[in-house]
Amino acid sequence: MTFTRRRILTAAGAACALPVLAQGQPVRIGSTLALTGPLSATALTHKLVGEIYVEQLNKRGGLLGRKVEWIVKDDQSKPDLARTLYEQLVTSDKVDLLMGPYATGAILSAMGVAQRYNKVLVHHTFGIPSLAKYEMQFPAWALGPDPGQTVPNTVFDMLAASKKPPKTIAVVTSKFPSVHFMSLGGREVAKKRGLKEVLFLEWDFGNRDFGPIAARVKDAKPDFVWVGDIGLEGNMLLDAMKKIDYTPPLHFHTYPAPGPMTKSAEGDGALALTIFEEHVPFINQGEAAAFVKTFNERAAAANLPDTHVEVQAAASYTAWQILEAGVRGTNSLDDKKIAEYLRKNRIDTIQGRLRFDGPNNYGDDLMKIKQVQGGTWKVVWPESFAAPGAKLQMR
Prior knowledge:
The protein is α/β, with parallel strands linked by helices. The chain folds into 2 domains: 21-145 and 283-368, 3-Layer(aba) Sandwich (Rossmann fold), CATH 3.40.50.2300; 147-278 and 369-385, Response regulator (Rossmann fold), CATH 3.40.50. 41% of the residues lie in helices and 19% in strands. The protein has 12 helices and 14 strands. The strands form 3 sheets. The chain has a 7-stranded mixed beta sheet, sandwiched between helices. Strands 2-1-3-4-5 form a 5-stranded parallel beta sheet, with helices on both faces. Residues 1-22 have low confidence and may be disordered.
């Protein structure tokens, strides 16, 4: 073939017209999620959020002018497997960056791997800040450095302001690390505030027989039940209570699977923690409204049990925002540079502006309390963040 000057110039022009994302190797981000096992009901929400974020990120030009690929592996809700898979992501898959998995146990495993290889780890649902010793880990879960005290105080401040503050409490909890930690904190704060503890029970994570626990709660007749649950544990406990014709007067759940709790009739009135719900004032923050619209559509198409954006989806989205901000702020994939940037700068996210200059890189406790009302989560406390017209409902 004869290469004329015109043909060469035409070819050069075509090359220049190619999208920027066609140039260079993709930026590869690796993580695991509990796509199967007892934590899968919630982890599937995190998977959908990650897919949405990476898709939109690539539409904006990717990172450093390169397409972003997300490599996600199934850790089966097993922290030990998560550790092995993160090792594979770093050593065999040779990913450029890491994103944290779902749930404290798996995140702690991933954190150990990240520390071994000096990788930044942004994570979204780590519930025990005191264990986050690694200087290059960054939480999107805005619990503050001492949630064992601050979170229960938020719960009991709300109850103290109600028309009929509870006088007695039952604490029933999973031994899942972050859940157990938070429940022991709630137990301590309740005692300091003068609530009489009428029951304290624990169960092993993975338990499916909640009948005996339900019976013990019913016999104790508490005014308020603190349920230290994660995933579907709370639903199973409420189902067991229904079978013995018992409905707790007021019940709080630490980390319930958001969709199943709203879809269950027994979940009506359930209380839980949140950092974001899809109503004002939250949807007025940055790109929150656009994300809510996209998530609603994609969640419906994926047949998720709940198509709403709430605490889990928001935490996951926030983690991706933090990681993107670190790369853009440094114009680099260098983990140490990214970590230094995140520690020194506040990052705008859909849950607000986050800082990482406190103990173990934690900033402020931004937790709010929400309640299932009419099949939807609505923030009820603090009142300045409450959904329009929403107030704490008590039986």
